[in-house]
Amino acid sequence: MKEYLNEKKIKERVEILGEAITKAYKNQNELTILCVLKGSFIFLADLVREIELDLSIEFIDVSSYVGMSRSELVLNKDINFNVKNKNILIVEDIIDSGNTINFLFKYINDKKPKSLKIATLFFKPEAYNFNMKIDWIGFNISNEFIVGYGLDLNEIHRNKKSIYILEDE
Ligand code: IMP
Ligand code: MG
After folding, report:
1. Rounded to whole angstroms, how far apart are CA atoms 40 and 42?
2. What's the whole-model pTM score?
3. What is the pLDDT of residue 73?
4. At the topology level of CATH, where does 8-22+31-144 sit?
5. Exposed site from 12, 34, 128, 148, fewest CB < 10 Å?
6. Can you give the residue ranges of every domain in the chain?
7. In b/e form, how buried is each residue of 42-54, taking b as 16+ CB within 10 angstroms?
8. Residue 137 alpha carbon to ligand 2 centre in Å
9. pLDDT for position 65
């Protein structure tokens, strides 16, 4: 396991994302952040503290990975708030094939939000299978499996402060 990004680099980037998001929504009277569990919880906690706006925070839980391989999407915890006419910003830890975000985008969009945007800390352009544009990306990364800062392998490593690359066993 080797360190890929340290705390300082992550923090600097999260600050920039927070500033950009603040600017984008500053003329709106409402913002709802939708955190995709579990991987995004640490990114969410840091990001929302860099957004200088009144906002609400909601959670949805979908999972798609078993170990280091993609599997079927499972909706583990649904939302229980009214999406209609809200400005929804989906916060993801990482977009890989794009299956999860594509599913979520459609799922939320069907509930008629006023606007729907996406912020992800990591994006794997080589693995992405869709055309849908991602509004805010923290870091583009190559096709490697990373852990730490919320990201796991079989639920372990989420509490690590830095991001690490895991090599295939
Ligand atoms: P996608 O549906 O293929 O885009 O995968 C997205 C989800 O898979 C993310 O929300 C993560 O939970 C998980 N995932 C994808 N790549 C990684 C990785 O490199 N490390 C840890 N989790 C990952
Ligand atoms: Mg996830």
Report:
1. 6
2. 0.95
3. 87
4. Rossmann fold (3.40.50)
5. 12
6. 8-22+31-144
7. bbbebbbebbebe
8. 15
9. 64
